[in-house]
Design goal:
Blueprint lengths: L3 H10 L3 H5 L5 E3 L16 H21 L14 E3 L1 H10 L6 E6 L10 H20 L14 H7 L3 E5 L3 H13 L2 E7 L4 H9 L3 E5 L3 H14 L3 E4 L5 H20 L10 E6 L4 H14 L3 E8 L4 H8 L28 H10 L2 E5 L1 H15 L13 H8 L1 H4 L8 E6 L7 H18 L1
Parallel strand pairs: 3-11, 4-5, 4-7, 5-6, 8-9, 8-11, 9-10
Antiparallel strand pairs: 1-10, 2-3
Helix pairs in contact: 3-10, 5-7, 5-10, 10-11, 11-13, 14-17
Bound molecules: pyridoxal-5'-phosphate (PLP).
Length: about 450
Amino acid sequence: MVAQSKIEAYIKREPLLADVILKKPVIWLNAQRKIMAKMPDCGLSMQNIEAVESLWARFSPFLKETFTELASVEGKISSPLKRTDSMKDWLSKKDIKIDGQLYVKCDSDLAVAGSIKARGGFYEVLHYAEKLALNAGILQEGDDYRKFSDAAFKRFFSQYKIGVGSTGNLGMSIGIMSARLGFEAHVYVSNDAKQWKKDLLRKEGAIVKEYSGDFSEAILAGRKETLADPKGYFVDDENSKELFIGYSLGAKELQKDLQEQGVIVDEAHPLFVYSPCGVGGSSGGIAFGLREIFGDAVHCFFVEPTHAPAVLIGLATGEMSHICVQDLGIDNKTEADGLAVGRASNFATQISANTISGIYTIEDNELFELLSALWDCEKIFLEPSATAGLIGAQMVEKSGYPQKYGLNMQQATHVAWATGGSLVPQTDRNLFYNRGKKLLTEKH
Ligand SMILES: *Cc1c(COP(=O)(O)O)cnc(C)c1O
């Protein structure tokens, strides 16, 4: 922990931190959010997002051939946007009424990885594979990327090692895609990683290395071991530019979804997007992309567990990635796997400091309640982390943000980004659902 005097100085700078330290649910509004006219250059632009899109297009013939579930969708990995009126009614009955429409962006249905990591994680691996193949001269511009299935390509990639430290979805996405391409895929996990995830990874051909200590030890060991190998490449969740930009394409997909469903977004029709946030890479990449596309008409909020508000403390103290939740005596203990993160991504948080409107926190119990309610109302199953955005509309309304910016909430569109869930086995699904159901009945 940092010294008490320092904590007091942080609280003086941002009084809300007192409640954050007590692990109370809060909403923090970002006074540093920039309007587009004043947005500093972060070195990335729409061109980078379009480059991600082109890479996916080049790889789609290979993906279509390699993953049976992608055969019917032309090798394209995308997710549905669903309007969820029953869930909106349920939420409105439970708490304050939601103005505007509520949608869920179902990245839980993303093929192969079953989570938002299919966007960033797959992109980072494909980008690296393409670079290696081009540099080695075995791939030329304009080639048919089905070449990546050739035995010669697999042999070529088998000299290289890709490492990642993750107990959850990131490890799954990197492990699966790396192994399919023929890389030696090493996934470093702590020993509390779920058995079904380890089994699935091993079945795909990845090497799962378990560490007995804290999860951060697994990452440290993984980074060290991978980088000690001259042909090793470590996917670094705490600082990856490639993950970030890979995720950002999700913003373009949402733009297309909204257009197809006839949803208008402009200053008079504000768009609110609520993203569950771990290190802030997926949520940050999507917020960056959305601001590039919709400018000041989009308002992006992150959601973190009350026990793991890594990005919130990074931004509110101004320490960015130089502070972790444990420094403030917060334990980082949450059952929201994807969000159990103590320290913000350095790369992503520098950018999010300017793009996002705010961050709210949520308690674990509420995640389970939302999980059960969403299943009952919409027959959409999510993992606990992924439900966090569902109360965004109500949190924002209560914060006074719409009044402050004079926003017409009757014409608002709320999108809860549902970040994962389709790979969760049935037994775990039942446990999660029953837990939420029990909590809800106890309340009434
Ligand atoms: C990884 C993940 C997140 C958060 O992504 P970050 O890049 O860590 O912010 C949210 N939900 C789920 C289900 C995830 O797997």
